[in-house]
Design a protein that fits this description.
Blueprint: E1 21-23, E2 30-32, E3 39-44, H1 55-73, E4 77-84, H2 89-98, H3 102-119, E5 127-130, H4 135-148, E6 151-155, E7 167-171, H5 173-179, H6 192-201, E8 218-222, E9 237-239, H7 241-253, E10 257-263, H8 267-282, E11 287-293, E12 296-298, E13 301-302, H9 313-318, H10 323-331, E14 339-340, H11 343-357, E15 361-366, H12 368-380, H13 385-398, H14 403-414
Parallel strand pairs: 3-4, 3-10, 4-5, 10-11, 12-14
Antiparallel strand pairs: 1-2, 6-7, 7-8, 8-9, 12-13
The structure holds 5'-O-(N-(L-cysteinyl)-sulfamoyl)adenosine and zinc ion.
Zinc ion (ZN) binds at residues 45, 83, 245, 270.
Length: 418
């Protein structure tokens, strides 16, 4: 397993917080995120390693970092797993376009991401798993779905009389809906027309000949000339996208885990279908709460690799922007909001960092224990970080009886080291 990154210390605070209520994408309701036992289990979709780490990525990982910190403060343990999509079409296309071998590109970018996560004091996953490490397990899972009739083969174009080894394999969404506790659209709540559009835009192939349903997603891609491929029980090939997260999550966290997370661009098709694959494999729902961070825009459009409108964490750090100011610029927005990165937002965060760093000790000032109550209260309410920041702003403006406790609160719950 690739190493994740260094774990920052998390101070213990007086008393205990409580597990937050979290907005659940599937039901649209706020659900309690308390696990059944003392271990909260979290899966957050990791990067496809190119153009890392942009502010959109950082914002999503910070949202789930805040969730972890609130769980820890509630006295829970956290088991966190994250994947790395280190083989997939967009990565291979970028490698081809730049002439850098795909493995080299992936490794460089994973290193850069680790460095950025460390600088931002994001709590690392216990299981940090690259897809290329679990090819056999994914192929075995696809073989199980084939045996059960929940997956089927589609001949690769140009190999009409080839054998099963040159076939691609697709997931049969209708069969999965009949045989497991899942149906398509359960998580995203989209209608079929919307699903077809998003599938075409986000890595699906609704027009592929030979599929039973246009929305059936690829589970296994048979080897093609010039593409990386691995020997497996299915013949040579490589995994489709959604199945990687199902297999990695089931392997490390089991089914029915506490929270599945990612950016809102993953709600459909990725999360809807990775939950479907997992339900078809395990007979159980993948997670209890499906949680999504709003997308960060820049210069009027979603910050994305395909548009190239990126602000990179590493470039900000190189320009001398302090990492805690980057965190504060992100935490100033509710994690579910869509918002735009601007220089003014960063300037506000820099001023806030200065104000927090120069917080005054005042015997009859605000009670730091009251601030702790307020911050806990705000974070328990669907991770209201803007509300939590406001509570510390007020204390910084008035002076507090115990500045050391305020620094511990900022560190433990917001990851901001003053
Ligand atoms: N490897 C897949 C997930 S299995 C992937 O989506 N990789 S990624 O590199 O494109 O994105 C990594 C994470 O950042 C995902 O959770 C994604 O939802 C999130 N993300 C990407 N762009 C943005 C954005 N503009 N704002 C917020 N989050 C974003
Ligand atoms: Zn994923």
């Amino acid at each position: 397993m690739p190493e994740s990154w260094a774990r920052p210390p998390v101070p213990r605070l007086p008393g205990t917080g409580r597990p937050p209520r979290l907005h659940d994408t599937a039901t649209g309701e706020r659900l309690c995120s308390a696990p059944d036992d003392v271990i909260a289990r979290l899966y957050v979709c990791g990067i496809t390693p190119y153009d890392a780490t942009h502010i959109g990525h950082a914002s999503t990982y910070l949202a789930f970092d805040t969730l972890q910190r609130v769980w820890l403060d509630a006295g829970l343990e956290v088991h966190y797993a994250q994947n790395i999509t280190d083989v997939d079409d967009p990565l291979l296309e970028r490698a081809e376009a730049t002439g850098v071998p795909w493995r080299e590109l992936a490794d460089q970018q994973i290193d850069l991401f680790r460095g950025d996560m460390t600088a931002l004091r994001i709590l690392p996953p216990q299981d940090y798993v690259a897809v290329t490490e679990v090819i056999d397990e994914i192929a075995d899972a696809v073989a199980v779905l084939l045996e059960r009739g929940t997956a089927y083969r589609v001949p690769t174009p140009g190999t009409a009389d080839g054998g099963a080894e040159t076939d691609d394999v697709y997931f049969d969404i209708a069969s999965a809906a009949r045989t497991s506790p899942w149906r398509i659209g359960e998580e995203s709540n989209l209608d079929r027309a919307e699903m077809l559009t998003l599938s075409a835009e986000r890595g699906g192939d609704p027009d592929r000949e030979g599929k039973r349903d246009a929305l059936d997603p690829l589970l296994w891609r048979a080897a093609r000339e010039g593409e990386p491929s691995w020997e497996s029980v299915l013949g040579r090939g490589r995994p489709g996208w959604h199945i990687e997260c199902s297999v990695i999550a089931l392997k490390h966290l089991g089914h029915d885990f506490t929270v599945q997370g990612g950016g809102a661009d993953l709600i459909f098709p990725h999360h809807d279908l990775s939950a479907g694959h997992a339900a078809a494999l395990s007979g159980h729902p993948l997670a209890k709460v499906f949680s999504h961070a709003g997308l960060v825009a820049y210069q009027g459009e979603k910050m994305s690799k395909s548009l190239g409108n990126l602000v990179l964490v590493s470039e900000l750090l190189q320009r001398g922007v302090p990492a805690p100011a980057i965190r504060l610029a992100l935490l100033a927005h509710h994690y579910r909001d869509e918002w735009e990165w601007t220089q003014e937002g960063l300037d506000r965060a820099l001023r806030r960092l200065d104000a927090w760093r120069s917080i005054r000790s005042k015997a009859d000032g605000t009670s730091a224990l009251d601030v702790l109550d307020q911050v806990r209260d705000r974070l328990a309410d669907d991770l209201d970080t803007p509300g939590a920041l406001a509570a510390i702003d007020a204390a910084a403006a008035s002076g507090v009886d115990d500045p050391t406790l305020i620094r511990a609160i900022a560190d433990a719950l917001l990851g901001v080291a003053l």
